[in-house]
Amino acid sequence: MEDIVLKARAREIRGKQVKALRREGRLPAIVYGRNIKPLPITLDIREASRILPTMTSSHLVVVDVDG
């Protein structure tokens, strides 16, 4: 099985201000995990809409945040 890599950027914009991100073609998201604090990120909407529908619940995803 090949690794699925999503390129992301950390974001400071929160709340209702994320509408501006969506207009720019960015998808706001949050990475949750065990032993890490929640990390707000943005994904490219085209890349995410191409990759995410092909995944199943058992796929592992690598999120590359700012390199």
Give descriptors for this structure:
67 residues, alpha+beta, Ribosomal Protein L25, Chain P, 2 helices, 43% strand
Give the structure's gist in a few sentences.
This protein is α+β, with helices and mostly antiparallel strands.
Molecular shape: globular
Gap from first CA to last CA: 23 Å
Q: Report the helical percentage.
A: 10-25%
Using DSSP, what is the number of strands?
4
Explain what you see.
With about 70 residues, the protein is an alpha+beta fold. It has a single domain (about 5-65), classed as Ribosomal Protein L25, Chain P (Beta Barrel), CATH 2.40.240. It is about 20% helix and about 45% strand. A four-stranded mixed β-sheet has the order 2-3-1-4.
Task: Give the helix/strand layout.
Elements: E1 4-10, H1 18-23, E2 26-33, E3 36-44, H2 45-51, E4 61-65
Parallel strand pairs: 1-4
Antiparallel strand pairs: 1-3, 2-3
